[in-house]
Design a protein that fits this description.
alpha+beta, Hepatocyte Growth Factor, 5-stranded antiparallel beta sheet, elongated, signal, 10608_t:CDS:1
């Protein structure tokens, strides 16, 4: 009995550590210059919708209730790539702006020493300065390729509206502990919403969550201490790698769906099968009667 208890304890500890492994962040693949403002503003997103954050930033609650700032080059690049902008610009260590090709027309090049603010989410990188922007190309991000078959107006529509009755909303995912931790993340190269829901259904989970365009998570609860940590819709902005007209969460954000109950699904299939079978039997009977009369 004592041996069984020890094994269970070891298993619980290992599961807990697996659920709270830090999410690894990649360094940016491409860096432009350090640009200095000369009177114009980087308002790419604001020019399309006043409801979108400009600048964009992101924070999450830590395990002990503290606020964790997440902004780093990759987060800003992915965010701007989601909305199909070609450039991402960071300022003051935590402010993210999106821009088009015309950025070079409105900013000049100071020395790189002007971009000396460390990133709030990763102190090994610099994220601009007080009056300077560190600019990156977004075309190196996989997020940019996910949405290549749609335009910015379609993306804004997808982000703001989701009429799927299974959709629960956009929710925060932590920088270390996962919100849906019933399974390790399932990473697929062609995932869609239904792919993730079906996977979680097969594994008897109540909820399916999609993140970053290509990750699927399952779980029976998406609350933390009884409370759901909702995120603004704009944070669930990444197109699904398997279907660009669907949204599959975003960086540190989950698009969560309710998984149909397995037994109810089977019951529905049985009912449908029974109705179809009965109809076919009736048609066959009518054909036989007509042949007999002939």
């Amino acid at each position: 009995m004592k041996k069984i208890f020890i094994l269970l304890l070891i298993n619980l500890i290992s599961v807990s550590s697996q659920q709270c492994d830090p999410i690894l962040r990649d360094p940016p693949l491409d860096s432009r210059k350090c640009f200095e403002n000369i009177g114009q503003t980087l308002n790419g997103l604001a020019s399309f919708s006043p409801t979108l954050s400009n600048p964009f930033s992101m924070n999450r609650k830590g395990e002990n209730g503290t606020t964790i700032a997440l902004m780093d080059p990759e987060l800003c690049i992915d965010h701007c790539a989601d909305y199909l902008f070609k450039y991402a610009a960071l300022k003051n260590g935590e402010e993210c702006y999106c821009a088009t090709d015309s950025i070079t027309e409105y900013y000049n090049h100071p020395s790189n020493g002007t971009c000396n603010s460390t990133c709030a989410g990763n102190p090994t990188f610099t994220c601009g300065g007080e009056n300077a922007f560190k600019v990156y190309s977004t075309t190196t991000s996989t997020h940019y390729s996910y949405g290549k078959n749609i335009n910015i107006y379609k993306k804004l529509e997808l982000v703001s509206k989701n009429s799927d009755p299974r959709y629960q909303g956009c929710f925060q995912d932590g920088p270390s502990c996962r919100t849906l931790n019933g399974t390790p993340p399932q990473v697929e190269n062609s995932i869609t919403i239904d792919d993730c829901i079906n996977f979680c259904n097969q594994n008897s989970f109540k909820y399916a969550g999609l993140e970053n365009g290509h990750q699927c998570f399952c779980g029976n609860d998406y609350t933390v201490n009884g409370q759901a940590s909702g995120a603004p819709n704009e944070q669930c902005s990444t197109s699904c790698v398997g279907n660009s007209s669907q949204i599959c969460g975003g960086p540190f954000a989950l698009s969560i769906y309710e998984v149909p109950n397995k037994s109810s699904t089977n019951s529905t299939l049985k009912i449908v099968g029974g109705v179809v079978g009965g109809f076919l039997a009736l048609v066959l009977l009518l054909i036989i009667l007509r042949l007999c009369r002939g």
